Amino acid sequence: MSAIGLPLIIEFGGGAELLFDGKKRHEVDLPGEEWTLKRLLSWLRDNLLTERPELFMQGDTVRPGILVLVNDADWELLGEGDYKLCPRDKVLFISTLHGG
After folding, report:
1. Strands 57-58 and 25-31
2. Which of 32, 35, 72, 100 has the most CB atoms less than 10 A away?
């Protein structure tokens, strides 16, 4: 029996893509079935983040100024890091941090 994965679409905007090799869209298939947003953040840090992790994460969550949307809904309405990801969810990270 083959392992089941979790297919997701992960997108970055507002400059956050610059921390992820300049790529705005990533289609990933995560191993296993049980994934929360908190676990996804750790996976992103360890697997896709290419520079300046302090601009994306603070501790085990996103830093203030990063909006997180799951299927166009604010993650705060979904339980933030405790939200259980579903196959083909679209997770969007938008930076509101801009230099002046």
Report:
1. unpaired
2. 35
